[in-house]
Amino acid sequence: MRFLTAGESHGPELVVIVEGLPAGVSVRQEALDEDLARRQRGYGRGARSTRIERDHAEVVAGIAGGTTTGAPVAIRIVNRDFANQPAQPKSLTAPRPGHADLAGGMKYGLDDFRLVRERASARETAARVAAGALARSLLAHFGAEIGSFVVAIGDRRMDPAANVSEMDASALWALAGRAEDDPVRCPDPDASARMTAAIDAAKEAGETLGGVFVVFATGVPAGLGSHVHWDRRLDGRLIGALGSIHAVKGAEVGDAFALAELPGTGAVDSIVRTAEGSGLGRPTNRAGGLEGGMTNGRPVVLRAAMKPLSSVRREVESIDLRTGAPVDPAYVRSDVCAVPAAAVVGEAMVAWVLADALTERFGADRLDAMLAAFDAVRADARWTPPAAGATDVMDAAIDVDAER
Ligand code: EPS
Q1: Which atom of ligand 1 is nearest to the CA of 10?
Q2: Is this model's pTM higher than 0.85 or not?
């Protein structure tokens, strides 16, 4: 599967073309629009997101009667702010540090950095969320779901932020459920209040704030990805997908950075019989649901760190490349904090990578054939552990029935 987006932040619209979705996937218009709306929310967003745009996914190809046909799916998202743009926008000749301006201007030979900014803007992530909603629709047929929540904004952290990767699916969904109605997508009301206060203070000071969010996936079949080649290892693909989100500068699988401080025994997730003895269980999930580059049937848990947005009202240093003079580049309207939005974009990117891996494993032309292949693997007797005490345990090493 692949998707391409096109469109400028203040141009007429964003476009996304999604290729490789199997035929037969149910896609609800409301689900697409709800994901777009979730991305627009979040305390600390600026006027554009909260008052101007009302994102709607207009499907123009590839879906008939609410079901994919196997043809490329094309979606348009109109930029309502296009109507507010001046006919002759002012050139931006002083590159803003932290943005794509300088590197993009040098690379493409553009001396009006506004032209770089237009495509580099995080507005593009609306199109990604539409693609992610399609991926999510495919995953839903297999019982896989993706959620997210925010664990830190600036130095205000949710406690305990560090051990979420040891939680089971229901605990993760309880957190995500509470986050859904929270202004900063944080499940902990005390932490949320401290976070919104920090956003207020940052706004007052002309500053911006970054933060950390968790994205998780439950019900993901075991065996997506592969250990056999570097580019098939799912860890790298997921980290890369999260790292591609605007202002995200780091991502980890499970408790990666905390595990780096521990001895080996503190970092493994034991393989045990489930309480009823019929399957294999993993009492902890420090690996974040990935072992050897493959899903292992436990929730996939990732964290990503977003740096503070580089559009600050306070003075920053740059050079006007038309005059050569040191200047403070003009502040352009922006968000104070976009971490809650980035978490929703993170869901979309994780959904995309998992859906892609799902089609690699079970086929990609038609959903019914994929589901038949999926059922065949689940029914395979080799995945059933031998009776307790049996010595041939190798065949039981993967529990393909993912935790629901
Ligand atoms: C963005 C700057 C702001 C954000 C925008 C991303 O836009 P504007 O300069 O028009 O106020 O609002 O995000 C969105 C519009 C969105 O939908 O996410 C930037 O420079 O990246």
Answers
A1: 10
A2: yes
